[in-house]
Amino acid sequence: MNQFYPSQAPNKDKPLQNHDIVVKNRKTIEITGVKHVESFDHEEFLLETVMGFLAVKGTALKMQNLNVEQGMVAIEGKILEISYLDEPAAESNKGFFGKLFR
């Protein structure tokens, strides 16, 4: 008996988005692939992207542009740190003692 299970086809209404980060002179950051802006203030932006949660930290941060339909956010200010908040797979497999003795 041969059965064929088709792979998950992407939703034709909403194509898969790319996720790009462009930093210009450490004063402006443009991020694509943004699904949702969780929170923001003048020191930190927390964004949900197609690749996971992303934190942008800095000083005097303000949202320059937000395009929900295209999933693009532009932030202006002094950029100090850009980091993803999910743990890498290797670190999560360390177990109890691996996490205890970091």
Report on this model:
This protein has 102 residues and is mostly beta strands. It is 10% helix and 50% strand. The protein has two helices and six strands, in the order ββββββαα. It has helices spanning 89-92, 95-100, and strands spanning 21-24, 28-32, 34-40, 44-49, 52-67, 72-84. A hairpin with a 3-residue loop joins strand 3 and strand 4. The protein is globular. Residues 4-13 have low confidence and may be disordered.
User: Taking strands numbered 1, 2, ... along the chain, how are they ordered across the largest sheet?
Assistant: 1-2-6-5-4-3
Number of H/I helices: 2
Q: What's the alpha carbon Rg, rounded to whole Å?
A: 18 Å
Helix content: under 10%
Helix and strand element order: EEEEEEHH
How much of the sequence lies in strands comes to over 45%
End-to-end separation: 51 Å
Shape: globular
Structural class computed from helices and strand pairing: mainly beta
Structure in a nutshell:
This protein has 102 residues and is mainly β. Helices cover 10% and strands 50% of the residues.
Write out key terms for the chains shown.
single chain; 102 residues; mainly beta; six-stranded antiparallel beta sheet; globular
List the helices and strands and how they pair.
Blueprint: E1 21-24, E2 28-32, E3 34-40, E4 44-49, E5 52-67, E6 72-84, H1 89-92, H2 95-100
